[in-house]
Design a protein that fits this description.
The protein is α+β, with helices and mostly antiparallel strands. It folds into 2 domains: 97 residues, Helix Hairpins; 308 residues, BirA Bifunctional Protein, domain 2 (2-Layer Sandwich), CATH 3.30.930.10. The chain is built from 13 helices and 19 strands. The strands form 5 sheets. It has an 8-stranded mixed sheet. It has a 4-stranded antiparallel sheet with strand order 5-8-6-7. Strand 13 and strand 14 form a beta hairpin. Helix 3 packs antiparallel against helix 4. The longest helix is centred in the N-terminal third of the chain and has 37 residues.
Length: 434
């Protein structure tokens, strides 16, 4: 858990970060609560000492056969201790939540901005001139490869059935994406799809994700309510393999020589997408269940910024191989996630919309996750918190949507050359007869 020692040592940087982020985080309240808790604990110690002394005086008086006049005073002191303890517990609870939700200190060179409109474009690849009238959803439904109507009947909105060549394309993309990353020395991980609350909170700010994540009780009941204090052992469906991989080494200490650890996770991901009504409701670009290939690195502090650039390059290489036009942007301070020091997004061109849409996100969380998950490494007789980095390699459903639109021509969808071997030699998607 993050300590007040860290807060005091980095108070200036924290205040600057809160201001740059346009955050509502109350650093003054955190400092005031910590001071109040120290004062309450001092009073508790004094009262407990007085209670112990009074109890001893009564015991000694009884041994001497004398009456004690301190009984009522002790009863009053016990009530005072109980009240102080209750107050200290409440202050401590609030302090812990403030510490848990403390924003990650931004890297100095993150552009300062008030909204996503001030994100900075760094580079582009490919042409973004192509336009089509139909979106990927209409194309795939006409080919009878995508069924959202029956999925809505069975599971609700933003679910889908993929059939025939489309289901095969999904598997082809997964294998191509995995092969592209593991050849760079990353270890493939298929993580649990549910994790405990304390580990979820260590990987992501729970308040930020409370409208996005599904919560599952021990009896298997899906809880979509906002009661996130219900049970410590309730499980959360992961929104990305990042969450489970970050927690995989919780409470561990590495040798410096063991780092970096590079992982590539493949998992289904689950997001409620509450509050996103009206955004990409058609097709499979924004759905509740999807496959995702995620990169994750545990690194020494002095090396982590080089690995952030590596994560971005890895996804860029995949998108170039697939022939997808994209751009890379750096998020401004107000658009950077609470747990992140710096983020690059990769956005792909969508011909039906004539705009770029997010296809991947790459972040250095520095020690935000490792402090909460207690992951350290030995460095010159000193223990330091590791830096954790995550980066999308491929959001499979979004990649399919982008591929369909960019490779649709004259009523057919061409398969990118790099995927042909994974598609049993097929070079075009074949529709199904209705």
């Amino acid at each position: 858990m993050i300590s007040m020692k860290f807060i005091r040592e980095h108070e200036k940087e924290i205040r600057e970060t809160v201001e740059k982020r346009k955050s509502k985080f109350d650093i003054d309240k955190l400092m005031a609560n910590e001071k109040m808790l120290r004062e309450l604990n001092t009073k508790l110690q004094e009262e407990q000492h007085a209670l112990n002394k009074g109890s001893m005086d009564i015991a000694n008086a009884k041994k001497l056969g004398k009456d004690s006049t301190n009984v009522n005073e002790l009863a009053s002191r016990k009530k005072s201790i109980a009240a102080l303890q209750a107050q200290a517990n409440e202050v401590n609870k609030e302090l812990e939540m403030l510490l848990w939700n403390l924003p990650c200190i931004l890297k100095d060179d993150v552009p300062v901005g008030n909204s996503e409109n001030e994100n900075v474009e760094l580079r582009k690849y490919g042409s973004a001139e192509k336009r089509i009238e139909k979106g990927h959803d209409e194309i795939l439904q006409e080919m009878n490869l995508l069924d959202v109507e029956n999925a809505a009947k069975v599971a609700g909105s933003r679910f889908f059935y993929m059939k025939g060549d489309l289901a095969l394309l999904e598997q082809a993309l997964i294998r191509f994406g995995i092969d592209s990353i593991i050849k760079k020395g990353y270890t493939l991980v298929a993580p649990p799809l549910m994790i405990r609350k304390k580990y979820f909170m260590g990987a992501a700010p729970l308040d930020t994700f409370k409208d996005a994540m599904y919560k599952v009780s021990e009896t298997g009941e899906i809880r979509n309510d906002a009661d996130y204090e219900h049970m410590e052992e309730e499980l959360y469906m992961i929104g990305t393999a990042e969450h489970a991989i970050a927690a995989m080494h919780a409470e561990q200490v590495f040798k410096g020589s063991e780092l970096p650890l590079r992982y590539v996770g493949i998992s289904q991901s689950f997001r409620r997408e509450a509050g996103s009504h009206g955004k990409d409701t058609k097709g499979i670009f924004r759905v509740h269940q999807f496959n995702k290939i995620e990169q994750f690195i545990f690194a020494k502090q002095e090396d982590s910024w080089n690995y952030l650039e590596e994560l971005v390059r890895n996804e860029e290489e995949i998108m170039k191989a697939l022939g997808i036009p994209y751009r890379v942007i750096e998020l401004c301070s107000a658009d950077t996630g609470l747990q992140v020091a710096k983020t690059y997004d990769l956005e792909a061109h969508m011909p039906s919309q004539g705009k770029y849409r997010e296809l991947g996100s790459h972040s250095n969380c520095t020690d935000w996750q490792s402090m909460r998950l207690d992951i350290k490494y030995d460095s010159n007789n000193e223990r330091k918190y590791v830096h954790t980095l995550n980066g999308t390699a491929m959001p499979v459903q979004r990649t399919i949507a982008v591929l369909i639109e960019n490779y649709y021509e004259n009523g057919r969808v061409k398969i990118p050359d790099v995927l042909v071997p994974y598609m049993n030699g097929k070079r075009f998607l074949d529709g199904l007869k209705t």
